[in-house]
Write a structure and sequence with these properties.
The protein contains 16 helices and 5 strands. It is mainly α. Helix 4 runs antiparallel to helix 10 and helix 4 packs antiparallel against helix 12. About 45% of the residues are buried.
Length: about 450
């Protein structure tokens, strides 16, 4: 009698049929085994894990270029927007930025090809340039006191956090559960509301040129203290810029993450950036903005180095929280310092210096995704994080030079004037020197 047994192999998806002929078997004889192999088609279970690593590596470059296109266009537009605000004021460029952003957002909602997405993303760069340069310049003009200016810019950067860092989790959840066009349609509605508020409050139909001619852009670029402040903004934001396109792909490769998790991974950075900008907009003035920026650069570098050690989405919470919080420290410290350096060393017209600040921000978001995607493809995501982390740590000590930047002689004479409306502070090791010092001189004269 034949005994048959089927054995299924999960290794090569085949079935082994084994039969033992025992009827004619004499004692002492070995059993004969017959084996048949048949091809079995097995339907694989659905999985979110990527099937082709090469395809994902190529996506690193394409997604990186798409991210970088906006920052690259914004980088090229900023040098023109800064001087333009000096001539016509801040209101018209601010409203023009809203109009361009609204059009690009509608394009995103209905684009069906990579080329259209690229054009919409690039158009965003022009709108962002108008909005960010004019917005920061307007705040620096309205708030002349150094402490009030820092508080106002901290709040403004908190709004920036809602756009730059809340975008990924919001977009991924809406894409997963509602549809591709839904996040962009919501943003377009918010943009319309913003435009209505601008029309009522700022009245952008009127031009308001600056009363004095601002310092030329090239002169500001030669100031080493402005370059250090701009470098801090650039390298700190480059860290999150490299994470945005590369981290989701790395999560799919190593964690088999679902689509909604790819954006939610940035949620800790969003929350911490919001906390950091609002908290250090106030604290940085008291403990020294240079110190906040220095510590922020160190924390960014250390947090980025810890990202590749995460084994699941929960392991990303602490590093991404640290990155967002530290970038908030740097941005809320360096943006007021840019205005302070112009007050101290140049003419108090702010369009050009905040064009430089936005150029630095854009360089981080232009170089970061484009170079980051290529580096991740060539040597891997962990090495990409190691490189940018070390760069941030090495750059951090340069912030020490912003501790007490010297004023130029002719500018110091203006700041000493009793009628000077600008009040700035210089942070020294033992005390805080305030300008103008008219009240102290009056007390000294009364004592005599």
């Amino acid at each position: 009698m034949d005994n048959f047994q089927s054995i299924f192999s999960y290794y090569d998806n085949s079935t082994m049929v084994t039969g033992n002929e025992s009827e004619q078997t004499q004692p002492g004889e070995l059993h004969q085994t017959q084996t048949e192999q048949m091809v079995v088609t097995v339907t694989p279970s659905p999985s979110d894990c990527p099937k082709d690593d090469k395809e994902l590596l190529n996506e690193n470059v394409r997604v990186g270029l798409l991210f970088a296109s906006k920052a690259t266009v914004q980088l090229m537009t900023n040098p023109f927007i800064g001087p333009l605000t000096n001539r016509i004021g801040y209101q018209i460029p601010l409203f023009a930025g809203f109009c361009i952003m609204f059009v690009s957002t509608i394009m995103f909602a209905f684009s069906g090809s990579y080329a259209l997405l690229f054009i919409a993303r690039s158009l965003q760069g022009v709108g962002s340039s108008c909005s960010s340069v004019a917005g920061m310049g307007l705040l620096a003009t309205v708030y002349t006191d150094d402490e009030e200016r820092g508080n106002a810019m901290g709040i403004a950067l908190g709004g920036l956090a809602m756009g730059v860092l809340v975008g990924p989790p919001f977009g991924s959840v809406m894409y997963e559960f509602v549809g591709k066009s839904s996040p962009f349609l919501v943003l377009a509605a918010l943009a319309l509301f913003d435009g209505a508020v601008q029309l009522l409050v700022l009245q952008p139909s009127r031009t308001q040129a600056e009363s004095q001619k601002g310092t030329p852009l090239l002169t500001l670029l030669k100031d080493p203290y402005i370059i250090i402040a701009a470098g801090s903004i650039c390298f700190a934001n480059m860290a999150i810029a490299m994470l945005e396109p590369a981290l989701p792909i790395w999560m799919m490769e190593t964690m088999c993450s679902k689509k909604w998790q790819l954006g939610v991974a940035f949620l800790p950075a969003s929350i911490s950036y919001l906390i950091g900008t609002n908290l250090f907009g106030i604290l940085a003035h008291k403990i020294g903005r240079w110190l906040c920026a220095l510590l922020g650069m160190l924390i960014v570098g250390i947090s980025i180095l810890c990202v590749p050690f995460a084994k699941n989405i929960y392991g990303l919470i602490a590093p991404t929280f640290g990155v967002g919080f530290a970038i908030g420290m740097v941005d809320s410290s360096m943006m007021p310092i840019m205005g302070y350096l112009v007050d101290l060393r140049h003419v108090s017209v702010y369009g050009s210096v905040y064009a430089i600040a936005d150029v630095a921000f854009c360089m981080g978001f232009a170089i970061g995704p484009s170079a980051g995607g290529a580096i991740a493809k060539a040597i891997g995501f962990p090495w990409l994080m190691t490189i940018i982390g070390i760069v941030d740590i090495i750059f951090a000590p340069l912030c020490f030079f912003l501790r007490s930047p010297p004023a130029k002689e002719e500018k110091m004479a203006i700041l000493m004037d009793h009628n000077c409306p600008v009040k700035t502070k210089m942070y020294t090791q033992n005390n805080i020197q305030s300008y103008p010092i008219g009240e102290e001189e009056e007390e000294y004269e009364s004592d005599e």
